[in-house]
Specification:
This protein has helices at 2-8, 25-46, 60-64, 116-126, 137-140, 157-167, 170-181, 184-198, 224-237, 241-248, 320-335, 436-452; strands spanning 57-59, 88-93, 99-103, 132-134, 154-156, 214-215, 218-219, 252-256, 263-267, 279-287, 291-300, 303-310, 337-342, 351-354, 369-370, 372-373, 377-382, 388-393, 398-399, 407-415, 418-427. With 453 residues, the protein is an alpha+beta fold. Helix 9 crosses helix 10 (241-248). The chain is elongated and about 105 Å long.
């Protein structure tokens, strides 16, 4: 800024005996105003100008070898796609949603009655268990599997939810959808919005019961990865997760219509609940297009696993889904151990400060670098041969002014090349640059010294 002034105001020799003149207030005020506006807009921005990114790689394996608890696992024991019957399969860490294994996990397929886990959780979130549901003619016409409810009958929402999740009744699904959404179409909008909110970008649902369907947006379907995400939401994140688990873990449930003229008993068809210790919940499904499908969860030894299977055999192969589920669950239990990854793996190298001579203050003259910090602690299920990589996205240099807590970049944590988390980087001290008051006072002093001293 001073350089701009020098360019257009060359120093002149004062004539001998010249009288001191009054400072031209209007001229001086105009310069001060322009300088203030420009300086206030330029100085704060300098600290945020990112130079070409500097990246450093740290491999967690090198750090973990120093840990006496590290176990070396024979990589030949890894599960392969050929070991599974399912066309699409996913094993997920239910605590954080990280996918530990997938076979065509992002391929969209019909998913049959596994859809009903989303129907159930939406009904729990939007409805009341004591709500009265009136059966429509459309609901009463649904194909098997049916509760065989009749048009005009009334039921408690709670009872129809047990019918939905234990016996997978299609007519109960439609009655619930119409009660919650007003119509099947409006309820489907709620389903798709919830799926998107959860992070399921490849899911498109048309029916509340999972019957095969197609519209202008594509087939009724999802991916194995999205299906696992939906179940994780149902059992980990939803405000109604406890009720969801209570319903889906019930073995037998009996109820009547509100008139008391008909009685029903529902049995839980999720055989996995009795196959492995720690089996938590799940939902089966089948249509001619989807084949046998399953999504289920297991909790044991402080670990939570979710398995999702699509296209896991057709009639004659009804047990394939149980074989695949057990294989994936056992693989997770045997090969993944809990590890805590903290920010102590980071190389927190100070960043050079790039001084502008117009801003530099005497008290900071010897300050060449500035420290930064990034804090995190992640507890993860890891296979011992997995590679954790840390990438630093930081400026090569920082300009003034700098303030404690200012974000200047980020640290990216990746596992086997896939981004797991991004953490902000902050500087840990304050270094002032020249303020607009410093500039104005300096300019006034210079102007007076030049012209009136």
């Amino acid at each position: 800024m001073l350089g701009l002034y020098f360019k257009y105001h060359k120093r002149k020799q004062k004539p001998a005996g010249r009288r001191r003149q009054k400072i031209p207030a209007g001229f001086l005020f105009a310069w001060i105003l322009v300088a203030s506006v420009l300086l206030c807009s330029v100085i704060p921005a300098k600290a945020f100008v990112m130079q070409p990114q500097q990246q450093r790689i740290v491999h967690w394996n090198d750090h973990s070898k120093q840990n006496s608890n590290t176990l070396q696992v024979d990589t030949e024991q890894k599960i392969t796609d050929n070991d599974l019957h399912a066309l699409s399969a996913v094993l997920m860490d239910g605590e954080n949603g990280r996918i530990l294994y997938d076979k065509a996990g992002e391929e969209v397929r019909a998913n049959a009655s596994t859809t009903k886990i989303l129907t159930c959780i939406l009904a729990l979130e939007y409805g009341d268990l004591d709500d009265t549901v009136v059966v429509s003619s459309y609901a009463a016409k649904m194909p098997d599997v049916q509760l065989n409810i009749r048009e005009g009958e009334e039921y408690k929402l709670k009872d129809l939810l047990y019918s939905l999740m234990l016996e997978s009744h299609n007519d109960s699904a439609v009655a619930i959808a119409e009660h919650i959404g007003g119509s099947v179409e409006q309820f489907a909008e709620l389903m798709n919005q919830k799926a998107e909110d959860i992070g399921c970008m490849k899911t498109h649902f048309i029916t509340p019961n999972g019957l095969d369907a197609k519209d202008e947006h594509g087939i009724h379907g999802t991916t194995a990865a999205d299906l696992a995400r939906i179940l994780r939401y149902c059992i980990k994140e939803s405000s109604e997760k406890d009720t969801f688990l209570t319903i889906t873990r019930t073995s037998v449930y009996s109820f009547t219509n509100l008139a008391g003229t008909r009685s029903f008993t529902c049995n839980n068809h999720n055989a996995f609940l009795n196959m492995m210790d720690g089996a938590l919940t799940g939902k089966t499904g089948f249509t001619g297009t989807a084949g046998y499908c399953y999504v289920g969860a297991l909790e044991r030894d402080g670990k939570l696993f979710i398995v999702a299977l699509l296209g896991c055999g057709w009639p004659g192969n009804k047990t394939y889904k149980w074989a695949d589920t057990k294989k994936l669950m056992n693989y997770g239990l045997d090969h993944y151990q809990e590890h805590t990854i903290k920010d102590d793996i980071l190389q927190k190298t100070d960043i050079p400060i790039q001084y502008d001579s117009n801003y530099r203050k005497q008290q900071d003259a010897e300050k060449a670098t500035i420290a930064w910090d990034c804090s995190f602690s992640e507890t993860l299920l890891l296979r011992e041969d997995e590679q954790i990589t840390v990438r630093y996205i930081l400026p090569e240099k920082l300009g003034l002014p700098l303030q404690t807590g200012m974000q200047i970049g980020s640290v990216v944590l990746s596992i086997n090349g896939k981004v797991y988390a991004i953490y902000p980087v902050f500087i840990t001290e304050t270094i002032s640059g020249m303020t607009w008051m410093d500039f104005i006072s300096g300019y006034i002093k210079y102007y007076i010294d030049r012209n009136y001293s």
